[in-house]
Structure formats: C-alpha cells, structure tokens
Amino acid sequence: MYIEQGYKGKLGIWNAFILPVGFILFMTFNYFATKAFLDESGESTSEIMQTMIDQMGTLPFLAINLMVFVIGLIIVFIWVKFINGQSLTSFTTSRSRIDWKRIFTMFFIWAVFQGGMIFMTALNAPEDYVYNLQWDKFIPLVILSLLMFPFQTSFEEYLFRGQLLQGLGIATKSRAISWIVTSVLFGLMHAANPEVETLGPVVMVFYIGTGLLLGAMTLLDEGLELALGFHAANNITAALLMTSTWTAIQTDSVFIDMSEPTFAWTDTLSIFIGYPILLIILGKIYNWKNWKEKLFGRVLDRKEFFEKEGINDPQSTPEF
C-alpha cells in the first residue's frame, strides 16, 4: 500500500502538493518564457545549447544542469522530513526498509538492455553514427554521470511518483486517477526539451508512456525502488553511450547520432509492446498479484489504513 504511506506525515496531505505544483508552475513559466525568447531571437533551443556548450565545455555544461536537480532533491528530502514529518523509508516504499537490491537489479537489467540496443542500432546503421570514444573525456563523464544523474532522476521520481502520487491518491481515493494524472504531468514536464521542438508533439507519447510505466512499477511493486533504478539506468546509459546535437542531454558519449531527426509511430512500439513485456517480466520476478486492484482500485482512507497496518494513527488532525 504505497500510496497510503502518505498518511504517515504529521500534517494534512495538502503539503504533498506544494513542491510538485511549485515545480510544475516554474516549468510552465520557463517553457513559455523560453518560447517567447526563441520566437524573438529566431534561434532554436539546440542552437542556444550548442553556443553555451562551446563557451563552457560539454562536461561543465552538463554538471551545471544536473546541479539544479541535486539542490531540488535536497529540498524535497528536507520538506518531507521536517515539514511533512514523514520518514524517507515510508516516502520511498511500503516495505519496512528501502530495498536497495531492487534498485540495483532494475538498474542492471535496464542498463544492459538499453546498452545492447544502442550498440545494435549503431552497428546496423554505421553511416548514421560517429564513433566518438575519447578516454580522456569519457572517464570524467562516467564519474560525473554516476555521481549526479541519480540526483536528477531521483528528484523526478520522488516528486511525481512520491509526493504527487501519494497526495493525489489520498485526495481522490483513486489509484487510477493518481497514476494517470502524474504520468501525464511527468510527460508534460519534458515539453520544453529540444527533442519536442525537433521531432514534434508526437514524441510526448514516449514521455507520457514512460511515466505510465514508472507509475505502474511503483503501484504494482508498492514502492519506488524499481522506478528509481530504471530511471537512473535510462539516463546514465544514454548519456554514456549515445547522444546527438538536438537532445536535452549532450555529452562526449561513445556514439554521436548524426541521422536525420525523425519520430515515426513505429518508434512507439517499445512503449506499447516493450513496456508491457517489461512489466510482465518484473511481475514474474517479484510475484505481483492483484494487478487490477493495485492499478485501478480504491485508496484506503486513513482509519482503514492504520487499522489494516495494526498501528496507531500518529495524528488525529483532518487530512486537509
């Protein structure tokens, strides 16, 4: 019962919305401000990013962008601990302790799969990819990626699949509403990425679909561990192995994609077919049961939850 862990905060669940809503408003303002600037300057997001990279260097540019998420994750943890009064464990999982093995297992599974797909893609179409491995640049990239990308991905997971999923679930008493709304918002958060500008709105299918996958993982496994591992593996592997001049993440990766940017509906097969297969595999590994109830069922109210857990309600104040 991961969503119900939100009841363990010492204040009403209204505080679960403050940071996510604030972040969404900030991203919305940033999106329209950036769009207005681009319309006035006549430049694209990719061109501006390239200018900044040329001035600063690829690695410093990446580090500065990731530092924002380091600060963001620290703020989320401080808020949850001292304002909400919720433990990091109950914020992360419904288990008695955080299952680090789950995080690293999911990280390994997805990193190996995604890495294999990247190498296969590059080998099958060598004319579209430049081999770019430079050890003097790649080793610092590996160190930076392993140190800082987990902050970026964990910030997004704790904000959307943590605070917002728990808060919306308790507010609406619906797992489905909480799952779908947080997934859509997660996708829309990426609307300002240069991929959307280059490939068009169709690429939002990928972002929202990935949000649905991560939300399903969280609800079916009753914790954030798998989503944390998947998200970190996805971004780290991409940053190390393949980037291009028009993506949000640009690094001195092993391969540089030089192909013409396109996104066809056939590219969504990984979402509509691959993601469900991944969930089925994980379901077998972790023996998930009652899928329908976990994804679409009713969220217990406060009294039901604490009675079922067999523990005393730490507060008697209203939820709102």
UniProtKB/TrEMBL annotation:
<feature type="transmembrane region" description="Helical">
    <location>
        <begin position="59"/>
        <end position="82"/>
    </location>
</feature>
<feature type="transmembrane region" description="Helical">
    <location>
        <begin position="176"/>
        <end position="193"/>
    </location>
</feature>
<dbReference type="InterPro" id="IPR003675">
    <property type="entry name" value="Rce1/LyrA-like_dom"/>
</dbReference>
<dbReference type="GO" id="GO:0080120">
    <property type="term" value="P:CAAX-box protein maturation"/>
</dbReference>
<protein>
    <recommendedName>
        <fullName>CAAX prenyl protease 2/Lysostaphin resistance protein A-like domain-containing protein</fullName>
    </recommendedName>
</protein>
<feature type="transmembrane region" description="Helical">
    <location>
        <begin position="232"/>
        <end position="249"/>
    </location>
</feature>
<feature type="transmembrane region" description="Helical">
    <location>
        <begin position="269"/>
        <end position="288"/>
    </location>
</feature>
<feature type="transmembrane region" description="Helical">
    <location>
        <begin position="138"/>
        <end position="155"/>
    </location>
</feature>
<feature type="transmembrane region" description="Helical">
    <location>
        <begin position="199"/>
        <end position="220"/>
    </location>
</feature>
<dbReference type="Pfam" id="PF02517">
    <property type="entry name" value="Rce1-like"/>
</dbReference>
<feature type="transmembrane region" description="Helical">
    <location>
        <begin position="103"/>
        <end position="126"/>
    </location>
</feature>
<feature type="transmembrane region" description="Helical">
    <location>
        <begin position="12"/>
        <end position="33"/>
    </location>
</feature>
<dbReference type="GO" id="GO:0004175">
    <property type="term" value="F:endopeptidase activity"/>
</dbReference>
<keyword id="KW-0472">Membrane</keyword>
<keyword id="KW-0812">Transmembrane</keyword>
<keyword id="KW-1133">Transmembrane helix</keyword>
<feature type="domain" description="CAAX prenyl protease 2/Lysostaphin resistance protein A-like">
    <location>
        <begin position="141"/>
        <end position="236"/>
    </location>
</feature>
